[in-house]
């Protein structure tokens, strides 16, 4: 297996940034008090927060520096978008990213695969001298009649683009120090993963989440692992991977998060909805297996997220192709 940790089946919207589990029964996740920005960093308890601090402190510093430069401006910006404060905006965007975490992470992996092939060497610092990152840009969806507190977090924004660019291309002069801090973290994280001795490990990919109209962005790191080297990236497979990326993007923009329900098939998620149960937002799948949908047995209407795929084939085909690369 080319990843270090397997998937965890979680139906709650918000999860701990360290163990990726939902909050303990009857409790809420605790926020990092030292930073705020476009994504709220939360933990299930003090122990997870303490374990995560060696990695999080650099991201925290990056976000704090951003807020020092743009904090007052950000409050004004998010108020024009309909949020009372930057903290309220950060929570809304964090909930949105949490809802669509599977599609974001695996869509990014598929793009790296298309870009580099199974070597995934854009994440190798020795082969990425320009330090290319992946910038993911979002846009606030137009106001709806439903009050924001009752609106599904999965519908709050839309994905505009995800593209590769050098880190300096997106770094204003005023934020160079914060960017250097992030590069320090990059080296620390890279050395930490190298020390683990995973033979599939390639390097760290920096992802930058940005929302149109908001000055403060958020950096996240993703460890990248080499995929199955025995599979050639043929033209036909490239089309199927294009389908996979399109399904991920469509699920995000349709507000239908993808999550895994069968832990034996971690690259075959199913779509669902985020619904309110009491004080919690919960993810509920439309079906447990794609065969239910293909055979017309799923209790849902045809999914618009599957329309306009480049190959015109069934969604399951693209998941199968991605799976062949992902598991070694």
Outline the structure in words.
The chain is 37% helix and 18% strand. With 328 residues, it is α+β, with helices and mostly antiparallel strands. Helix 1 packs antiparallel against helix 4. The longest helix is centred in the N-terminal third of the chain and has 35 residues.
Summarize the structure.
37% of the residues lie in helices and 18% in strands. By secondary structure, the chain is of the alpha+beta class. The strands form 3 sheets. A 4-stranded mixed beta sheet has the order 4-3-5-6. A 3-stranded antiparallel beta sheet has the order 7-8-9.
Tell me the number of strands: 9
The side-by-side strand order for the widest beta sheet comes to 4-3-5-6
The pLDDT mean sits at 83
How does the overall form come out from the CA principal axes? Answer: globular
Low-confidence runs (pLDDT<50, min 5 residues)? 1-9
Distance between the termini: 5 Å
Give the class from helix and strand content and strand pairing.
alpha+beta
Tell me the radius of gyration: 19 Å
The share of residues in extended strands comes to: 15-25%
Give the ordered list of helices and strands: EEHHHEEHEEHEEEHH
**Total helical elements:** 7
- Share of helix, binned: 25-40%
Instruction: Profile the largest sheet.
Output: 4 strands, mixed
